Amino acid sequence: MQTDSLSDRILKGERRALARAITLVESNRADHRAQASDLLAQLAGSGRQALRIGLSGTPGVGKSTFIESFGMMLTGQGLRVAVLAVDPSSARSGGSILGDKTRMERLSREQNAFIRPSPSQSHLGGVARRTREAIALCEAAGYDVVLIETVGVGQSETVVSELSDLFLLLLAPAGGDELQGVKRGIMEMADIILVNKADGDLKATATRTCADYAGALRLLRKRPQDPEGFPKAMTVSAVEEHGLEQAWDEMQTLTQWRRDTGIWEANRAAQARYWFDQEVRHALLARLDTPQARAEMERLNDEVSQGRLSPAVAAGQLLDTLG
């Protein structure tokens, strides 16, 4: 694969080239990793930036429906929208359904939209390991907004906050009380909480749930990256497309304030440091995946299982061997 021609096509905004590049950066083959690094280095000087919006919520809350309605609204305003949807992988087979694009039928036909489902594989935190690089490719391709949809399994999906400029948390009506709102973890990472399905019989329930979470947010410690009134809770209806424009206005208000105060750039710099640290850790773990390391681990496994060595001592011996 010629990375020079691929980078030129990405800079021109070709969706097929973008899809091919994301496949390349997601590959674990050594030659593909080298090509991916070369491609990302060529695109690093493009200077293009998108608004990165992370979005999480439990299964069934309506993430895909919200993204489709929200994405259609943005493309209707002339913006180019990329969606990176992370799908859970089976712990047994390693496979993923990758069905999010099927749910977003209208958005998938939109010329100014790009949807890419990716398997989470064994990566924890609700996103795939190479999602950060996929975001960089979407930015280079000229997309204005990149939506990162997490796996959606619960309270621990905080890694997406290290990828995004804004973090939205989608909740269902009657999804909890004030106590849920003050739980540490995903709640304190959210910039805006959106109570979805505020329509029909659930509209009153959604309004009460929103009020509960708005009260809970006032109890959380003030964050330096927030202006007055943030984080906040709002109601939306992805089906009836109510509240989407108001939510977008609030996102733009928060984004502009962070840009004006320098928090935007500081946050991006902190995220770059975080991912450098993660890459170092992954590289060190990869050193365990050599024939010599596996043989030594197998020998020490036998020692530990037979009680001749404690796990801590065995781990120390293995690390000494690698050192």
Q: Explain this structure to me?
A:
This protein is an alpha/beta fold and 323 residues long. 49% of the residues lie in helices and 12% in strands. It is built from 14 helices and 7 strands. It has helices at residues 3-11, 15-26, 30-43, 63-76, 100-103, 105-108, 131-140, 178-181, 186-189, 203-217, 244-261, 263-286, 291-305, 311-322, and strands at residues 51-56, 81-87, 113-119, 145-149, 166-171, 192-195, 232-235. It has a 7-stranded parallel beta sheet with strand order 3-2-4-1-5-6-7, with helices on both faces. α10 links the parallel β6 and β7 (232-235). α2 packs across α3, α2 packs antiparallel against α7 and α13 runs antiparallel to α14 (311-322). The longest helix has 24 residues, at 263-286. It starts with a helix and ends with a helix. The model is unreliable at 89-97 and 122-126 (pLDDT under 50).
